[in-house]
């Protein structure tokens, strides 16, 4: 789809009508859906293809807030950031992927709104069971990577590097926030490698007490220390011929880092309390959520080890940096739980999708997965609605929605007429109470007394 700057004729009502008739002339017969939204978030035009795609009508929605359409985060983001955006959305009912391209409408040099084009992707219509699954035709990958869900550019790029890494024996350093899939990629690289039939041994260097870490990694001889009643084989020895995954390597003490460096360089080590050098041929994949360069600077990580580990660096971006994967992951986990437990399959209300896009996901995919497990079990019925999801997840979406709805009131009320002063006042009080949750805080924010807010809230039936 080409993006063009479209001059927007919107200076007065007459010109506005003229603009609408020219939109109609331009877009009426287009097979792609077209939506025109002005800078206040009000719908100016939708073509018949858009009406058909989303089951709405231009007649009913013209002049209304975009929150009354099955709109998507892309329109909102484009509108707020005043930037053109490309992306896609999952059609809530048709189970199809729709590519979305927004372009800016310019009124001279000032921003007039956005024009958004929706194109249904060619894939055949898919069942609810299939909804959200990656399009297998578009990605050929070894089976080992099939547990990795996501079609974003960054995931595709990581899969490409991981596949190459699997073919070599080089050390891999995976970085990224907690819960973003570092462990998943480490295991997939092992499974796709020539050593896949050999062990994959994982150790979390940050979770093991300092005194025990050496013996966990390298094992010990009988009598090496009090309590060492028999010989113990360490993780490196267990992983011999296969892969060791050193998770949270940034938390490894300096004296242990030297020993890992020696294994990489000389491929041998001694058990604690032993003299015998043990040969060890292990592929190392390390991971950390910390910034190793910073640790090197403050003297808690060895630079030589860093370079030895960082032969193939892989950075897994956080979920909020690849929002386009959220819905696919959500449906993946819903399907998985449905298959494993027999809980009926569900669908997401459109507002929930928007809330998921707005939320920051500090716990990344682990957090999303846990939430979906909870929702699948707790929500009765087959639709997960905005009120079913925790407040902390829906908060940003709610605030954004309310601010857009309120902004749109500056010109029009819900009937498309100029709003009265009382209507303004009601929305202002309602918004402040929603946002702050108490008369006191709302009053402070509005610069009036607690008594005034309480009286107005009663007057407008916002509270009992
Ligand atoms: N792209 C993905 N597709 C499907 N599941 C994923 C994906 N990425 C992560 N997961 C799942 O999310 C959960 C967390 O992933 P993982 O344990 O690999 O994260 P991590 O980055 O290693 O976390 P930590 O740093 O806390 O150890 C796992 O259940 C994993 O299977």
Describe what this molecule looks like in 3D.
- InterPro entries: AAA+_ATPase (IPR003593), AAA_lid_NorR (IPR058031), Homeodomain-like_sf (IPR009057), HTH_TyrR (IPR030828), P-loop_NTPase (IPR027417), PAS (IPR000014), PAS-like_dom_sf (IPR035965), Sigma_54_int (IPR002078).
- Residues 148-377 form the Sigma-54 factor interaction domain.
- This is HTH-type transcriptional regulatory protein TyrR.
- It holds the Pfam family Sigma54_activat.
- It contains 18 helices and 15 strands.
- A hairpin with a 4-residue loop joins strand 2 and strand 3 (43-46).
- The radius of gyration is 28 Å and the shape is elongated.
- The protein has 464 residues and is an alpha/beta fold.
- The strands form four sheets. Strands 1, 2, 3, 4, 5 and 6 form a six-stranded mixed beta sheet that branches.
- It has helices at 13-27, 48-54, 58-61, 73-81, 153-167, 182-191, 210-218, 235-238, 254-266, 292-297, 303-309, 326-341, 350-358, 364-378, 391-409, 421-436, 439-446, 450-459; strands spanning 6-7, 33-38, 43-46, 85-90, 97-107, 110-120, 172-175, 200-204, 243-247, 268-270, 277-279, 283-288, 312-315, 347-348, 383-384.
- The chain folds into three domains: 6-120, Beta-Lactamase (2-Layer Sandwich), CATH 3.30.450; 136-315, P-loop containing nucleotide triphosphate hydrolases (Rossmann fold, 3-Layer(aba) Sandwich), CATH 3.40.50; 322-419, Helicase, Ruva Protein, domain 3 (Orthogonal Bundle).
- The structure holds adenosine-5'-triphosphate (ATP).
- Residues 147-150, 176, 178-184, 247, 289, 329, 365-366, 369 line the site of adenosine-5'-triphosphate.
């Amino acid at each position: 789809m080409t993006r063009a700057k479209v001059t927007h004729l919107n200076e007065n009502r007459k010109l506005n009508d003229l603009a609408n008739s020219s939109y109609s002339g331009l877009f009426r017969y287009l097979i792609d859906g077209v939506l025109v939204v002005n800078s206040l978030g009000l719908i100016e035009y939708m073509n018949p293809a858009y009406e058909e795609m989303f089951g709405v009508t231009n007649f009913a929605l013209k002049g209304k807030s975009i929150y009354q359409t099955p709109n998507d985060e892309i329109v909102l983001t484009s509108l707020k950031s005043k930037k053109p955006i490309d992306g896609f959305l999952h059609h809530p009912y048709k189970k199809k992927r729709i590519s979305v391209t927004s372009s800016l409408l310019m009124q001279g040099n000032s921003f007039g709104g956005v024009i958004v084009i929706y194109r249904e992707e060619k894939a055949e219509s898919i069942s609810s069971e299939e909804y959200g699954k990656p399009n297998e035709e578009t990605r050929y990958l070894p089976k080992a990577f099939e547990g990795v869900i996501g079609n974003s550019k960054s995931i595709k790029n990581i899969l490409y590097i991981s596949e190459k890494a699997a073919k070599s024996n080089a050390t891999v350093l995976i970085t990224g926030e907690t819960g973003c899939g570092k462990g998943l990629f480490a295991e997939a690289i092992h499974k796709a490698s020539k050593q896949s039939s050999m062990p994959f041994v994982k150790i979390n260097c940050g979770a093991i007490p300092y005194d025990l870490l050496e013996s966990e990694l390298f094992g010990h001889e009988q009598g090496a220390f009090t309590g060492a009643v028999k010989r113990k084989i360490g993780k490196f020895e267990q992983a011999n011929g296969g892969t060791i995954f050193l998770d949270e390597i940034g938390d490894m003490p300096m004296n242990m880092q030297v020993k890992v460096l020696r294994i990489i360089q000389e491929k041998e080590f001694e058990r604690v309390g032993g003299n015998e050098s043990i040969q060890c041929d292990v592929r190392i994949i390390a991971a950390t959520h910390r910034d190793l360069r910073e640790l090197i600077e403050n003297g808690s990580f060895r630079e030589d080890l860093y370079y030895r580990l960082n032969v193939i660096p892989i950075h897994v971006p956080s979920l909020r940096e690849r929002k386009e994967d959220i819905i696919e992951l959500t449906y993946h986990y819903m399907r998985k739980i449905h298959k494993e437990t027999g809980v009926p399959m569900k669908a997401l209300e459109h507002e929930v999708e928007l809330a998921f896009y707005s939320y920051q996901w500090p716990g990344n995919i682990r957090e999303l997965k846990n939430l979906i497990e909870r929702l699948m079990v707790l929500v009765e019925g087959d639709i997960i609605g905005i009120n079913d999801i925790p407040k902390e997840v829906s908060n940003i979406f709610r605030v954004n929605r309310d601010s857009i709805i309120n902004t749109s009131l500056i010109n029009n009320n819900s009937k498309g007429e100029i709003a009265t002063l009382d209507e303004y006042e009601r929305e202002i009080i309602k918004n402040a109470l929603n946002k702050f949750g108490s008369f006191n805080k709302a009053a402070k924010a509005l610069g009036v007394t607690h008594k005034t807010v309480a009286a107005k809230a009663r007057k407008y039936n916002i509270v009992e």
